[in-house]
Structure formats: C-alpha cells, structure tokens
Design goal:
Elements (H helix, E strand, L loop, with lengths): L3 H24 L9 E10 L2 E14 L6 E3 L5 E4 L4 E6 L2 E5 L2 E2 L1 E2 L5 E2 L5 E2 L15 E3 L4 E4 L2 E5 L2 E4 L5 E3 L4 E4 L5 E3 L6 E3 L1 E3 L5 H36 L2
Antiparallel strand pairs: 1-2, 3-19, 4-7, 4-18, 5-6, 5-10, 5-14, 6-16, 8-9, 11-12, 12-13, 14-17, 15-16
Helix pairs in contact: 1-2
C-alpha cells in the first residue's frame, strides 16, 4: 500500500479530533467564563520509515483570554480581571473558577451557582446567616453591615495551560500551574458575569471547514480502496 494513504488516514483521524474539540466549544457557548480549546497538530515521521510522514495531535491548548462581560446589576455576581481565579471547595478539593453567581447559604457560607463553597484567604468565608447588604470589594474583601468578615482567596498562575479542567468552567491545579498571590488590588468586578470566549460565527465556520476537510479525506481513502481492490482483482485473473 503506498505510504501516502497513511498520511491521509492520519489526517482524517486528526480531523475527527478537531471536529470533536470544535463541537465541545460550540456546546459551551452559553456557559459563563468558558474558555474555548484548540487542537494543535504536528507532522511526525514513522520510526521504521523516515519517508513516511503523518499527522498527530501535539496538544490541546486552552484560549485563556477572558470573554466579554455581561452586566447583571447583582452585587453577588462576580467577574475577575484577566488571569485571576477564585478558589472554591469542590467536594473537598480546591478548585478555581473565573467568577461566579454567589448565594448566601443557611450556615453563613457563600456558594457558587455550581454549589461550590467559596474559600477565603485562610478559611471559608462565613457571614451571619441573616446578613444583608453583602459587599465584595475590588480586592476580594467581603463585608456586611459595614464590617469586613473575610477576603476571597484570589490566585494567579504562572502557567494557566497546566490547569486541569473540571466540571463546567472550573479548574484544578495538578501541581504544575504555579499558583501565586494576585498582583493587583483591583481583581474583582461585581455586578458582571464573564461570558464564554467562543465566537459563535467563527466557530461554526471552523466546524464547516473541518467537516468538509474530513469528508474530502474519507472520500480519497474510499476511492483509493476501490482502486486497490479493482487492481487486485485484475491481477488475479
């Protein structure tokens, strides 16, 4: 079998992965603070045949640019400046989110719209269960009735690509992201929610292009298979 067919076959398989990634992005276009992903491919040579080149995935890269902000007017809706994350307790593990819609729970804790408990700098932020006029400052300080009760645990990372995606738009540090204290005192934007950084029109265009490319490759493979089968029959006569 000519080596070129293997190159086309690897390209078709890479096309499947690209379509799946684009589908994942488009499915989350309405998910707050969702970061789109991009498949990065590279050319590689077969170990036993240096003349045989094929395509293989190199990495899945997360686009860490923040999405547009949507004003809500709710003082417990939070967005964060670029590169800043808020720590939450997700089933006993520390996770990080790029903002949230917070709610006061009966035990005085604050929880995100995903049910995660908000963590403070030293411990869980806790307010009186009947707290009113809850204010969150730009530096993450939480106050109620004019009294500061804690501060959100805000974090930046030296390598955001090393964060591991959790449910929805949460992330966990597998030990390589390099958490560090935030470098700004104006990290929190209240009354806003960050939207997904997925451009719907561009994403749909990419999807159509990727599907057409995959379709062309599969047709080439089918044509080659038909020609090869016919040649084999002719030789067998």
């Amino acid at each position: 079998m000519p080596s070129g067919i293997y190159t086309v076959l690897s390209g078709a398989m890479a096309g499947i992965e690209k379509v799946e990634t684009l589908s994942h992005n488009l499915a989350n276009v309405s998910t707050p603070a969702f970061n789109q992903f991009r498949m990065v491919f590279e050319a590689a040579q077969a170990k036993q045949n240096n003349e045989l080149t094929f395509v293989q995935p190199s990495m899945i890269e997360r686009d860490v640019r923040p999405g547009p902000l949507r004003e809500t007017g709710n003082p417990l809706d939070l967005a964060l400046t670029e590169g800043v994350y808020m720590a939450v307790d997700a089933d006993g593990k520390t996770a990080y989110v790029r903002g949230a819609s917070l709610a006061l729970q009966p035990d005085g804790t604050l929880s995100t719209d995903d049910g995660h408990t908000v963590l403070g700098e030293t411990e869980i932020v806790k307010l009186p269960p009947d707290a009113r006029d809850i204010l969150i400052a730009e530096d993450g300080s939480v106050s109620t009735d004019g009294r500061t009760v804690g501060r959100l645990r805000l974090t930046e990372f030296t390598d955001q690509q090393a964060l591991i995606q959790g449910p929805r738009s949460s992330y966990v540090d597998g030990g390589r992201a390099g958490p560090q204290a935030v470098s700004t005192s104006q990290a929190v934007i209240t009354g806003y929610r960050e939207q997904a950084n997925v451009d719907l029109i561009h994403g749909m265009t990419e999807m159509i292009t990727a599907q057409r490319t995959y379709s062309a490759m599969t047709k080439f493979i089918q044509t080659f298979s038909h020609v090869e089968s016919r040649a084999a029959r002719e030789l067998g006569r």
